[in-house]
């Protein structure tokens, strides 16, 4: 065993399916022990590990490449020994710098103070919290602020999580790409969500955004009071299926919730049929479309029948012309109309079209386009008429 090439030892270790097998083979030789420690990137900690703080320090010292760790105390009883608590989480945060994926389930002794230590995991991407009865919205807000790389959050049966400031913060910074919230106190009161979505590696060689039709269905069911939705896609191209949900999924969300404000940026899947669905959205008052290249004047013809629309913003929509805008203007009494960098829409077509009109026709350079994606449209001055 000592003479085998390290690559072969690595292959042997990778083919062992269970933790007990890995623990057993590491006792066969010092080389296997060393190689297994280098390759181990995930561990599971349950009721049998006690004292957990001491064990964690030892485990992290041995397995220095840990990326994924799960703590699960389902079925725990006092005679099992101490659970992971705030202090244990503090120790863990200082000795596992490469952690990207963390699950905390049925951890009765972790509260908002403990969640504050998660900001020490600078590379944390995925966080699952299940049945943590002591945590509140304040703790989740500290996670949202401190964990800059967080893109996936699963929150299950955390009964004391009330307000949604943490979720609104995650939406504003644009890093959150996957969200699951079930059986928590007040997610049904969520009224606003804003997400920036980028393609991620999913299956095989496919890259797509993690948000799917099922995600949108879950959002509609769990957040029936949702009124404001902003979805911005970054790095997606029309030629590839990089947007993870379909137009039907988006239409379902729009028709299931009382959405008053909708903003879509670089949504290549959204076309004239999608605009037809918007025409029956009876609560929709404000619509913003940025670089939605599949929408044409035919879509604006449908939008003209939208019963409540009073605010319309169009930016970088090359498929729209004066004729399409004129249809909406004739049918709706708009409070505000904003046209930015739509080369086929003229100033003459929008003058007097609403109580407030903003119009610019200069096309952005590459630097300006990048700044717009990162910082939003607030950097730009508007011409008012």
UniProtKB/TrEMBL annotation:
Highest rank taxon of the organism: Eukaryota
Location of the F-box domain: 1-47
Organism: Urochloa decumbens
Name of the protein this chain belongs to: F-box domain-containing protein
InterPro entries for the chain: F-box_dom, Leu-rich_rpt, Leu-rich_rpt_Cys-con_subtyp, LRR_dom_sf
PANTHER family, sorted: F-BOX DOMAIN CONTAINING PROTEIN, PARTNER OF PAIRED, ISOFORM B-RELATED
